[in-house]
Every structure is written in C-alpha cells, then in structure tokens.
Amino acid sequence: MPNLKDIKKRIGSVKNTQQITKAMKMVSAAKLRRAQEAVTAARPYADKMLDVLSSLVAREDTDAHSLLQHREKRRALVVLMTADRGLCGGFNGNVSKAAERFIRKNAEGFEAYDLMIIGRNGRDYLKSRHGMNIAKVYENITGHISYCTASLLGQEVVSGYAEEKYDAVFLIYNAFRSAISQEVTVDKLLPIVPKTIPEGAHLAEYLYEPSRTEVLSQILPKHVEVQIFRGLLESVASGRSAPVLRLYRWSPPTVTLGYGQRGADVVNLAACRRFGYQVVRRMTGGRAVLHDREVTYAVIAPERNELFPGEILSNYRVIAGALQDLMATYGIDATLASGQSRGGRQDGAQHSACFTAASSSRA
User: Fold this and answer.
1) Which residue has better confidence, 312 or 158?
2) Is residue 174 in a domain?
C-alpha cells in the first residue's frame, strides 16, 4: 500500500498534468479561433473577385486569354489539400478518398490525371493506390499560411496550364462550415468558368486601361491565386476543428441533466444540496446521470464523418470499441455491455444508457 509521501507525490503529478492539459486546450482553441477568423476575412474578397471576373469574362471570347480556353481533354491536374499531421479524425481520409473517387470515376472524361498534393497525409494515403500519379508533394506549408505561399502555388498551376501541360486544373479541399462541420469541396480552377449571369441581366461596358490583354493577364492569374489561398485557409480551419476526445473527472459528485429536462421533475434538489452534490445541465439530451469517482469522456465530431454510422447507439459502440481496444493494450480485460434495458427488457425508453432517451421539452 502506498505511503502518504507517495500519495502526495501522485496528487502533485496529476495536478501538473491537469495544468499542461488545460494549457494545450487553450492553445488549441486560440489556433481554431485565428484560423476561423482568417477564413471569414478571406471569403468576401474571393467571392467578390469571382463576381467581378464573371461580369468581365461574360463579354469576352474564350480566345481572349489562354486561361479561358477550353482544350481537348487529355491530361488534368488535381490539387489536393490535406494536413501534415494526423490525430484529426477523418479530415485527411475524407478528402483523400474524395480525390481518389474523383479520378477513378473520371466524370470529366480526361485521359490522365496528375496529383499535386499539399500535406504529408495525402501523399501517404495515395502513394500506394494503383493509378494515382503523384507529380508533386509540398509538405510543412500549412503551419503558417500566407498569400505569398498561395501565390507561388498559383503561378505554378497557371504556368502548367498556359504551357498546355494540363488541359484543366481541379482543387479538392475541406471547406470549413463550423467547428463541428466540414464539407469536401471540388472546384474547377482552370479553365476559368465564371458564374452564370441571369438572363436579361444588365452587363455594364468596361473601358480597359492600358489594354484588354494587359488587364486580363493580371486579373485572371490573380483569381487562381486567391482561390488557392482561400482553399488553404478553409483546409487549415477544418483541420483545427477535427474530432476531439475530451476526458473529465468530477469533484465533488455531480448530477448532470439532459438539455431539455426540468431539474425539479427528475432530481431531488434538496437532497443534492444536503449531500453537497452539484447539479449542472449538459448541452446534449438524455436523462439525468450521477457522476462520482469516474472518468467521463466526450467526443466532438462533424455530423458527416466516416468514423461514425450516424445513429446514437451505433456511434457509441464505435467509441466504446476503441476504448476497449485501448484498455486491452494495457492488459485490462474489458467487455462491452449487452445493451439490454433495465429489467432485461428491450425497451429503448428504459435503456441503461442515458443518451438513448430524448429528454422532455424545457418548460
């Protein structure tokens, strides 16, 4: 049995770990906030530039500039944006698999595809896939995104298209929607396809200074650079908000209520106060739960994630299975419960798992 000195040493170690974990959580939250602010700031400029370009190109023939020309479909370039690090759920897997499906399906009808991959994880996934021709890989550029980086990538893409090395360029990345939602997006960068202008819409006349050729030669490559910059920002923000596993301990014992439950209807509040139990409300539904001398985990993940089937119980079994495998590595023989309800009934309303029951509406 450990003596008092060992116990105090252990308590100090746990407190130090808590401080480190808290600092890491604060740093992660700050990085996500900065990435989200950068995306929000870049979107209006990118959208407005596309609007201006659509109005400008609507008056021009496709022969006015090489970036507007539609050529025979021989070889296309796919620019894939992933992360250099792992531990971000299905973020890398989703977008890498989307790129593989895009190439194999070949809905665009090209004879061959080359891949320009940004991020180590995309390379690791696709290098062993048959038929995936990786032309270039750029690593360690997503840690600090700058327009200069996007500009250099854009110039390389534009040069390859202008020299007729490629007959089309596609951009595949995770678009940031919210902290728990990202969407795999496929954009066609080249040839530039402007937005459809409504029939009957007024098209203003432009005066080009110094010349039409000079203006198009400046604004069309700039558009490609801006869209790549936006894609990088979207991808980084999405990676910062990938699935997160959080662990909690409770002191003192605490009763948590489902989001829609009335405390007085399900908990003896007077008894909780008498015994010193706290009562708090969760952000999720389900029934009331007493937490005492336990570790509670929470998983935060996007709604559309390949790791989880979608239904609550199915998602729970995936998470519980992963925890069971983790315990097995430490020699702990853990088994999953049968899933039966209390009293042996298969009644979902009385299932032992609190989250399987929807809590009543909040009054």
Assistant:
1) 158
2) yes
* 36 & 133 share domain: yes
Q: Which domain holds residue 119?
A: 31-240
Which residues are known catalytic residues? 88
Nearest Cα neighbor of 224 from 53, 360, 357 is 53
- In the three-class reduction of DSSP (H, G, I as helix; E, B as strand; rest coil), residue 75 is classed as strand
Residues 92 and 220 placed together within one structural domain of the fold? yes
Beta bridge mates, 184: 174
Q: Which DSSP symbol is given to 358?
A: P
Q: Indicate the pTM of the whole model.
A: 0.64
Q: Are residues 249 and 278 in the same domain?
A: yes
Residues 276, 341 within the same domain: yes
Asked if the model's pLDDT at residue 160 lies above 50, the reply is yes
301/176: higher pLDDT: 176
Question: Two tokens at 235?
Answer: 């991808």
- Which residues neighbour 228 within 8 Å (Cβ) at sequence distance 6 or greater? 79, 150, 153, 154, 157, 171, 189
Bridge partner list, 116 = 79, 136
Q: Which residues pair with 256 in a beta bridge?
A: 280, 289
| Same domain? 45 vs 162 | yes
Cα distances (Å, whole numbers) of residue 251 to 182, 294, 317, 352? 35, 10, 27, 23
Residue 112 has φ and ψ, to the nearest 5°, of -155, 160
Asked if pLDDT for residue 304 goes beyond 70, the answer is no
Largest CA distance in the chain: 88
